[in-house]
Amino acid sequence: MTTSPDAEPGASPASPDPSRTVRLVLTGDLDYDTCGNLLQQVQLALREHEDAEELRLDCAELGAVDSMGLSTLLQIHRAACRDGIGFHLDNIGPVLKRLLDLTGTYEHLHSTR
Fold this sequence. Notes:
Structural class: alpha/beta
Helix content: 25-40%
Strand order of the largest sheet: 1-2-3-4
CATH class: Alpha Beta
Order of helices and strands: EEHEHEHH
C-alpha cells in the first residue's frame, strides 16, 4: 500500500514467530475512512494466532493519523491488554509521535499489558 491520502491502511500478513509475537506493518493513512479496515486486519491476525503473547505494530510506513485513527489504536491496545497480549508501536514517526504527545496517549500506548 502507498501513503497517498486515499490509501487504505494496510497491515502485512502476520508471519509465524516462535516467540508468539504477531508483527504487522502498517501502511497508508489511518483515518475515519480507513480505520475499520485496520481493526479487522488486526482482529483477523490475532484470531489466526490464538497463542499470541505480543502484538507489534510497525508504524514506519504509516501516513497521516486522525482522531478516529488514534481511537482505533487505543481500541486495539485496550483489546490486547484485556486479552493479556503485550502491545507495542514500533518505528513511530514524528507526526504520530506529535499526535500521541499532544493527546497524552504516548505513555499509555507504551504500557505493554
